[in-house]
Amino acid sequence: MIVAEITSKDFPEATRFVGRCTEPGCSELPHAMFDTRPGAIAWLRGWFKQHVMDTGHRVVIEEDER
Question: C-alpha angle with apex 15: 57 to 9, nearest 5 degrees?
């Protein structure tokens, strides 16, 4: 028995943001987050913090064009 259904229509304000390392050849995989701008940026900054501090690499966060 289905109690509830969740679809993307339930989250009209959510946007997909992708964080990725800009260092050529870096093995760190991109990570994506669906959220509002402040929430997604905060989550992705936290995710990549250790990578940036350990390597000195630069990470960018982009709004996905989908």
Answer: 155
